[in-house]
Structures are given as structure tokens and as C-alpha cells.
Amino acid sequence: MLAPLVFAALLMAPFGGLKPEAHRLAAVMAAV
């Protein structure tokens, strides 16, 4: 169930310019 979230985070990362916010969001997704 984490796979789709991680995949989405990876897709959002490049578009977000690897901003701290994107990294934080990925961390939250991984935590959930």
C-alpha cells in the first residue's frame, strides 16, 4: 500500500524541484 504513495512522491519530487516541502511530504507518506 506504500508503493503508490512512494511512486506519487517520486513523481512529485522533480516537479517540486526537490523542495524541502516535497521531501517532507514524502516522509509523511512513508510514515503513513
Question: Would you write up a description of this structure?
Answer:
Helix content is 81%, strand content 0%. The protein has 32 residues and is mostly helical. The protein has one domain. The longest helix is centred in the first third of the chain and has 14 residues, at 2-15. The model has no long low-confidence stretch (mean pLDDT 70).
List the defining traits of the structure above:
32 residues; mainly alpha; 2 helices; flat
Describe the structure in brief.
The protein has 32 residues and is mostly helical. The protein has helices at residues 2-15, 20-31.
Question: Which SSEs are present, and which pair or pack?
Answer:
Blueprint: H1 2-15, H2 20-31
Helix pairs in contact: 1-2
Largest sheet: none
The low-confidence runs, each spanning 5 or more residues with pLDDT under 50, are none
Content-based structural category: mainly alpha
Tally the helices.
Answer: 2
Give the percentage of residues in beta strands: under 5%
Overall domain count: 1
- As a whole number of angstroms, the C-alpha radius of gyration is 9 Å
Estimate the mean pLDDT confidence.
70
Helix content: over 70%
- Morphology call: flat
**Secondary-structure element sequence?**
HH
> Termini distance?
10 Å
Number of separate strands: 0
